[in-house]
Amino acid sequence: MDTRPIGIFDSGAGGLTVLHECLVTLPHEDFVYLGDGARCPYGPRPRDEIRRFAHEIASYLEGAGVKLIVAACNSATAAALPQLQERLQVPVIGVLAPEAHAAVQATRNRRIGVLATEATVASRRYTEAIHALDAGAHIVETACPRLVPLIESAAPNEELDVAVREYARPLKAADADTVILGCTHYPLIKPVFERVFGRSTTLIFSAVETAREVAETLERKGIENDSAREGRSRFLTTGPVDEFRALGERFLQLPLAEVEQVAVRDLELAAA
Known about the structure:
By secondary structure, the chain is α/β, with parallel strands linked by helices.
């Protein structure tokens, strides 16, 4: 039995979708969630900058005593996962590989679409991960720069619908029967994606697949907590506390009694 918490981080509040699935799958585990609201969004930033941010946060979480870290941010996973796994002592899981595996398993015509941030699409990590499993798969990746700001600002459904339909157009033209929603914010508007793509398209959400991999990793390494207990969650943000609390309660549908402020300088020192 290992009573240490699991660390989860994201550029903002989108990774709470991963935390939610982990809470459902692993209700006996403790979690520490860190949202980098002060530097959100990561998508438009250069890869080296995202890599530095991810290393700072992961180092901070490791220093806080977590037993496993989930990079619940597709941009951070695409830019930094191998480096995090090399530098840290605790296991680090990203949100990209589980999605790629699920998509290859789900597709019927081997045509897979990807909707993600600019940084994730530019990295071509999804194409690499999918082709490592099926070299003959046809992949269409589309960057969606407007979606994360629209989702976090609680934009009207009509505005979200217009944006999603625009980004979905090239995937539909390519006859993709499976679409990876490659950003942890996207499950928050799941009904919009379902309406746009319809029942004939399989949608792959990162949160469900990642929670499954977390559970499998804990079991494989023998670091699960006592299954009879009730887990607790701790919330940290580098951005405004009230803003994170409001987003967190909207995303998780539960009250966040306490949200702790973390200075960006503290993250920088953790990686120094």
